[in-house]
Amino acid sequence: xxxxxxxxxxxxxxxxxxxxxxxxxxxxxxxxxxxxxxxxxxxxxxxxxxxxxxxxxxxxxxxxxxxxxxxxxxxxxxxxxxxxxxxxxxxxxxxxxxxxxxxxxxxxxxxxxxxxxxxxxxxxxxxxxxxxxxxxxxxxxxxxxxxxxxxxxxxxxxxxxxxxxxxxxxxxxxxxxxxxxxxxxxxxxxxxxxxxxxxxxxxxxxxxxxxxxxxxxxxxxxxxxxxxxxxxxxxxxxxxxxxxxxxxxxxxxxxxxxxxxxxxxxxxxxxxxxxxxxxxxxxxxxxxxxxxxxxxxxxxxxxxxxxxxxxxxxxxxxxxxxxxxxxxxxxxxxxxxxx
Length: 339
Known about the structure:
The chain is of the alpha/beta class and 339 residues long. The protein has 8 helices and 15 strands. A 7-stranded mixed beta sheet has the order 1-2-10-15-14-11-12, sandwiched between helices. Strand 1 and strand 2 form a beta hairpin. The longest helix has 20 residues. The two termini are 31 Å apart. 55% of the residues are buried. The mean pLDDT is 95.
């Protein structure tokens, strides 16, 4: 059901019944290792290119979600997924092997919540019983696409962020046990004129604040409704900018309940400059860490706000500024989980 100008309320209570989260060797050294289902100790994941490795991360995450939910791929009607690489080929090639009807999405690092919003909308409207949704990224593949091959060893400024090597997916179902997807707010493309590809957090922060403000207005909720508002991924710079923008908008957002996935996944001593990023970051944190905290009753109501910088190597070469977007999905705990 449409509420306000750009939000959906899911009155039929679509449920995230299972998840799959797979990470790389660098993520295995991070803070959230207990929330991953498995890791690959090999950045190549046994493949002969980083792009093929990213495909395998998504495949393995999907298989893990099916196993966790005691499901077969024949039980799944659709996949909504995407990534950051050219024409989202690694996702499309993963879905070639999975052989499940597929909607390919590109929202850069906002893809995780773009996909979850659409999956929940389809399930809520009885267009499917089970949908897999998620996204993936690979540090070396994304660096090669948007900046320089990691083999060059180029230096990065403190404002830059580290692309996560991981995939996170969830199964959204019409019935079952698990957290409920209660609503979604779709973002607008916002461009404040920033052109620095090493400061994505600063560029994306206005889009995050715009979507969060629209979400509270559309749903007529108090600004302290959620236990946690999690952006992904603004990093240190973007997180600080967002807090300042909330003040400018006279929004009373509690700093303790406003966190960023890009500041959660790695340890302090890992050299990730301003924090983590990548389409796999918010997906892995949401379907791993946040899902488990909802499951354990540590959280009851969360708003996940995935942010994306919609630039490309071509637009950077043409000296375009960076258009950004953010999509928000609320997930709430239902009474108890069955293990």
